[in-house]
Amino acid sequence: MKKFFEWYNHDHRHINLGLLTPAMVYEGRTEEVLEERKKVLKKAFSSFPERFNKAGPRLTVPAENVGINVKIERKSIPVV
User: Fold this and answer.
1) Cβ neighbours around 10 below 10 Å, total
2) Where are the domains of the chain?
3) Residue 78 burial by CB count (10 A; 0-12/13-18/19+): exposed, middle or buried?
4) What is the Cα–Cα distance from 17 to 8, expressed in whole angstroms?
5) What's the pLDDT score for residue 63?
6) DSSP at 15
7) How far apart are CA 3 and CA 65, in angstroms?
8) Residue-level pLDDT, tens digit, the chain, 80 residues
C-alpha cells in the first residue's frame, strides 16, 4: 500500500491538478512548475512552430476547486 500512495502523491500527474502531482500542489510548487513549463513550451514553439497548431502551445492549469465527485471545468491558457 505504501508504494501505491508514494506513486499516487509523487509521480502520478492528475489532469484536474493541471498535470501536477498532489505533492507539488500541497508543497506550494504550482506556480514554480507552471512557470518552468511555460518556458519550455515557448522555447519548443520558437524552435519548432510546425509541431503546434495555429493557436500555439497551451498550458494546462489546475482547476480552482477539486474534490471527490465534483464536476470540474478544465482550463488552459495560451503560452505565446
Assistant:
1) 11
2) 2-78
3) exposed
4) 13
5) 83
6) G
7) 27
8) 999 999 999 999 998 899 999 999 999 999 999 999 999 999 999 999 999 988 899 999 988 877 777 777 777 888 87
One-letter amino acid identity for 3?
A: K
Per-residue pLDDT at 21: 96
Q: Which residues contact 59 (CB under 8 A, 6 or more apart)?
A: 18, 34, 37, 38, 41, 76, 77, 78, 79
Cβ-contact 51, 44 below 8 angstroms: yes
pLDDT score, position 48: 94
Grid coordinates representing 12 are 502520478
- Which residues, in sequence order, are bridge partners of residue 77? 59
Q: What is the DSSP letter of 51?
A: G
Which residue is associated with the grid cell 510548487?
A: 29
Cβ–Cβ contacts within 10 Å for residue 34, how many? 19
